[in-house]
Specification:
heterodimer, A: 355 residues, Rossmann fold, eight-stranded mixed β-sheet, B: 327 residues, mainly alpha, MetI-like fold, 14 helices
């Protein structure tokens, strides 16, 4: 019963895009900088990636490579003193009146009505620390119903029922009672489930999951990943999955974007990334995964050096100081661009023509 | 919640007992007693007091017995509603304190409300718009307010009020209402006279509460749940008031308990300067003359006010924060 009610409450049905393979969200040349007292930090520095309807884009990279900032930039919720200084985020969607729209959502003012309805309504987000991502002094139900009411015209009671229904859909037992509880009364895994329920309760078309399993133990991690995949199939939504865990990427992603120092260095379907990595950074990342077949006492390969501080970004290709394939005279002189090296496979490295 | 309440009340009673013992001990600490200082003042006027007379006086006031018996008698009398006599004024303590206590509470509550109403909105604005021009102005005002001693501020305001508006701000009533029965006019007159004392008393509290609110809210604004609320598509100000401000309130509620007694005891000098009929100046004089029961009663009442304030803030915290209530 509640199932149908939920569907009825959905915003105007979403039509099929004119071109089924066209990306639902396209980030182009995004620059998000932080203007701190010590200087400008180029957290995101020319990142480009695309998300296709119903598919999962995995964004991988070491900590500090700008994954989270890129995600927050999509929703225009970058913390101060960060500011999106350049780029385009093209979003294809149907508005409330059923009209088709394809527009650069970066051109919408951050506090505009339209942006607020996209934020949480069209594109939802879940976070790394489920416990602290809920307000500790408001009940989970309060925070869920609030989200639902922000984006639908349900009254308080219906929204509450929808919240309970969603809690049961994400596998929280006894939801009618748990809805009253506060985050500290739940476990980390349950909090993340509730967070997923909150994010999906508005039937978004894209879910941004920013390291949703990093703070959880391995068993819970697997459960949350399964849950996300199941709900993604049920809702038919696209997902941007941010992680530094290549194992997780292999499991959930359809396409992968590898980020390094604020830009995407390689983009390819997931199998291609694992079987045929082209960028030296991607290759280095893959060889540093511990293997079950490794010999005892064998040292795990690592990437030499460490990520430079984004404030002293190396000139040219940002990876050149750590790159095993470094070509003097080229790599530190010019900045490589993403160029195609195969079907749906793009790399930004001077080893390949066209970069 | 009920268990929590009962526990708090019991702790409160225990604290009041401790306060009564402490206040009695403190009053006993200076060498000599009321009779000593009474004799000293008589001798200063040229009178001679013999040893027998002194002993008779001590017996009359019940000062000859050991301290713990004096304490026991004192407590026993208080529990029966008898706060004892003031040695100095030779009238029951309640008679001296009565109306003064009421005015003190009115003044303290008025200052508290003034502090909250002024400091919290400014603090919130300062945090949300950190490093804006208005934030800097608020910071400047805050530090200035903290740095100026109350009594100096009172003196300056008194001078200005007299010099510019020809308005005497000493006391709490105009001469024509001084001993008039309560009426609407008298209340209005009182309110008019309360403004300056409230501003004087509230300034340093306001200044520090602005800083506290700002710091707390800045901490809360960086928490992940704020990002979540933003990502939901909430209106910025709406979410600030629903989430971080609510959480930043916890420490503010806790410190309010301590502002209350501070306002009472902190008002001593201001009350002397502004000639306010509060308990402050009486406390000062009773301590100087070792007027035991009077001083004891006032200190005990300040203690009780602290305990009540703490209790109220605990209850308020329990209402505001489920973690306090349920754990």
């Amino acid at each position: 019963m509640t199932e149908t009610r939920l569907r009825d409450a959905m915003p105007t049905a979403i039509g099929t895009p004119p071109d089924a393979v066209a990306p639902i969200l396209q980030v182009q040349n995004l620059h998000t900088h932080f203007f701190t007292g010590e200087g400008i930090v180029h957290a995101v520095d020319g990142a480009s990636f695309a998300v296709h309807p119903g598919k999962t884009l995995g964004i991988v990279g070491e900590s500090g490579c700008g994954k989270s900032v890129a995600a927050k930039s999509i929703l225009q919720i970058v913390d101060k003193p960060g500011r999106i200084v350049d780029g385009e985020i093209l979003y294809t969607y149907t508005d409330k009146s059923g009209r088709y729209r394809h527009e650069n959502i970066l051109s919408l003012p951050s506090d505009s009505r339209q942006m607020k309805s996209i934020r949480g309504g069209e594109i939802s987000m879940i976070f790394q620390e489920p416990m602290s991502s809920f307000s500790p002094i408001h009940s989970v139900g309060n925070q869920l119903t609030e989200t639902i009411r922000l984006h639908t015209d349900m009254d308080q009671r219906t929204a509450r029922e929808a919240a309970i229904e969603w809690l049961s859909r994400v596998g929280i037992p006894n939801p009618a009672r748990r809805v009253e509880e506060y985050p500290y009364q739940m476990s980390g895994g349950q909090c993340q489930r509730a967070m997923i329920a909150m994010a999906l309760s508005t039937n978004p078309r894209i879910l941004i999951a920013d390291e949703p399993t990093t703070a959880l133990d391995v068993t819970t991690q697997a459960q949350i990943l399964n849950l996300l995949q199941r709900l993604q199939a049920e809702q038919g939504m696209a997902m941007i999955f941010i992680t530094h865990d290549l194992g997780v990427i292999a499991e959930v992603a359809d396409e992968v974007a590898v980020m390094y120092l604020g830009r995407v260095v390689e983009r390819a379907p997931v199998q291609e990334i694992f079987r045929n990595p082209q960028h030296p950074y991607t290759r280095a990342l893959l060889t540093s995964i511990p293997s079950i077949e490794a010999q005892p006492r064998q040292r795990l390969p690592t990437i030499s050096g460490s990520i430079p501080h984004p404030q002293n970004r190396p000139p040219g290709c940002p990876f050149h100081p750590r790159c095993p394939e470094y070509m003097a005279g080229t790599c530190e002189q010019k900045e490589p661009q993403l160029a195609s090296v195969g079907t749906n496979h793009e790399v930004s490295c001077f080893l390949y023509p066209g970069c | 919640m009920l268990g929590y309440l009962i526990r708090r009340v019991l702790y409160g009673l225990l604290t009041i007992f401790a306060v009564s013992v402490l206040s009695f001990t403190i009053i006993q600490l200076p060498p000599g007693d009321y009779v000593t200082s009474y004799i000293a003042s008589l001798e200063a006027q040229g009178d001679e007091v013999s040893a027998e007379e002194a002993a008779a006086l001590r017996a009359y006031f019940g000062l000859g017995e050991p301290a713990y018996i004096q304490y026991g008698k004192w407590m026993w009398q208080i529990m029966q509603g008898n706060w004892g006599m003031s040695f100095q004024y030779r009238v029951p303590v309640t008679e001296i304190i009565g109306q003064r206590l009421l005015l003190t509470i009115v003044l303290a509550l008025g200052s508290l409300i003034f502090i909250w109403v002024v400091a919290i909105p400014i603090g919130i604005y300062s945090a949300v718009r950190q490093y804006s021009v208005l934030d800097y102005i608020a910071t400047m005002f805050g530090f200035t307010g903290l740095a100026i001693p109350d009594f100096l501020f009172a003196l300056v305001l008194m001078y200005l009020a007299w010099d510019w508006f020809n308005f005497s701000i000493g006391g709490l009533f105009s001469p024509e209402y001084l001993s008039a029965p309560w009426s609407l006019g008298r209340v209005f007159d009182l309110l008019q006279h309360l403004i300056i004392p409230i501003v004087v008393l509230g300034t340093s509290g306001t200044a520090s509460l602005i800083r506290i609110t700002r710091a707390n809210l800045l901490d809360e604004l960086r928490k992940p749940y704020v990002v979540t609320a933003r990502a939901k598509g909430m209106n910025e100000w709406q979410l600030i008031f629903k989430y971080p401000v609510r959480l930043a309130f916890n420490p503010i509620i806790s410190i309010t308990a301590y502002i209350l007694p501070f306002l009472v005891s902190g008002s001593v000098i201001v009350s002397v300067v502004l000639n306010l009929p509060t308990v402050g100046p009486v406390l000062l004089r009773s301590l100087l003359s070792q007027d035991m029961f009077l001083a004891g009663a006032i200190i005990l009442m300040i203690g009780v006010m602290t305990v009540i304030g703490t209790l109220l803030s605990d209850i308020l915290l329990g209402i505001v924060d489920p973690r306090v209530r349920l754990r």
